[in-house]
Design goal:
With about 280 residues, the protein is an alpha/beta fold. The chain has 11 helices and 7 strands. Helix content is about 35%, strand content about 15%. Strands 6-5-4-3-2-1-7 form a 7-stranded parallel β-sheet. Strand 2, helix 2 and strand 3 form a beta-alpha-beta unit. The structure holds iron/sulfur cluster (SF4) (2 copies). One iron/sulfur cluster binds next to loops.
């Protein structure tokens, strides 16, 4: 039986626009469907009243940094914030109460093939020139980049003290015919590789043994997902509720989303996982 709490976390697509066109993107990118700045302010005030226990906001897109000024303002409504970015836009000018999660999807050639030519160098450059603030790396693992996990972990574990952790997301496929999706057996092999990396890099690697167990059992993953238990809610770029989650449609049967297994209700009985969840929840370290 899942634990029952009111929503503590809200995810917002602050824009549906994005300068990139990644092969794994699940969004229809149309900036003409975004709320205007004033409309977002009113919407957030309304959501704060409707869900008074929200303590963390997740800011997504599209590319959320396209609306950096508005984003910086709206982050003031929440004690803790996470920004999910491709890293294609400089990070400066953001308030302190946030962690910026930057997508790196493989070594340079693999990342650029998945995202955009030159995007790896641009992202690394933006990380390098961002002296203040907290960063994490997020790698969406798929058929094309699963062999580059160790190289990416090594590069970013030693890159800079401001990079605090590395998250792994498993490509949430649209079914068995999705060319990027891993089978459950392949996913289990990747989990073993990641757990070996955790032995080497410790808590820098977010995925714990317990999270690996959850990933072996899709039913457990779905039942523990905060969007399913109701501790997380999601809103599209028009401020409307997205159901069941940020994907906007149910992809649960093939989901490998990190929030589903990192913040799973199942983890509440596992100390290493609770520790990792607590780090994320409190903006690290
Ligand atoms: S950066 Fe994100 S929103 Fe933009 S194309 Fe890539 S996956 Fe889609
Ligand atoms: S698709 Fe994944 S993140 Fe969305 S509700 Fe289902 S399990 Fe949760």
């Amino acid at each position: 039986m899942p634990l029952s709490f009111p929503p503590l976390v809200a995810a917002f697509d602050i824009t549906s626009a994005c300068p990139l066109d990644c092969r794994h993107c699940y969004l229809e990118k149309r900036s003409d469907q975004d709320l205007a700045d004033g409309e977002w302010r009113l919407k957030i005030q309304k959501i704060r009243k409707e869900f008074p226990f929200l303590v963390r906001a997740l800011w997504l897109g599209g590319e959320p940094l396209l609306r950096k000024n508005l984003l910086a303002e709206l982050m003031g409504y929440f004690p803790y914030n996470s920004i999910f970015t491709s890293g294609s836009i400089p990070f400066s000018g953001l308030p302190e109460n946030c962690v910026i999660q930057v997508s790196i999807d493989g070594t340079e050639s693999v990342h650029d093939w998945i995202r955009w030519p030159g995007s790896f160098a641009k992202t690394v450059s933006n990380i390098s020139v961002y002296p203040e603030g907290k960063l994490t790396i997020a790698m969406t693992v798929n058929k094309w980049n699963r062999d580059s996990l160790a190289e990416v972990a090594e590069r970013f574990a030693n890159f800079s003290p401001k990079i605090l952790a590395m998250h792994f997301i498993f490509h949430t496929s649209r079914g068995v015919s999705d060319p990027m999706g891993l089978s459950f057996e392949e996913r289990a092999e990747v989990v073993k590789t990641i757990l070996k990396l955790r032995q080497k890099y410790g808590n820098f690697i977010m995925l714990t043994s317990k999270m690996g167990k959850i990933l072996e059992n899709q039913t457990a993953l779905v039942h523990g997902c905060p969007f399913v238990t109701g501790t997380a809610v999601s809103f599209d770029s028009m401020g409307n509720r997205k159901s069941p989650c940020w994907y906007g449609k149910s992809l649960c049967s093939h989901c490998g989303c990190s929030i589903a297994f990192e913040a799973s209700a199942e983890n509440f009985f596992d100390f290493p996982s609770v520790r990792q969840m607590w780090r994320v929840f409190r903006n690290f370290p």
